[in-house]
Design goal:
alpha+beta
Amino acid sequence: MNDEDFEIIYSPLEQPFTQAGHTLEICIYKSEGSSWALEIIDAGGTSTVWDQQFDTDQEALDVALQAISEDGIEAFLTPAEDNATS
């Protein structure tokens, strides 16, 4: 398969998530015929990617929001961003 043949499908559920003055980008995407991937990117460009694949984009979004709720937004920030003043 050539790079030209590889098309990424982005979920309409992708969204920014802001809390305590910090914004994360929740990215949900897949290639044709595959499961959904989940990635959270902080403002500094550091990403957290799940090894787990998801059957639906809604399932991926639910897992992202649950992880942020349980672990706190700080768990997804680079140390420099976490210590920055807002």
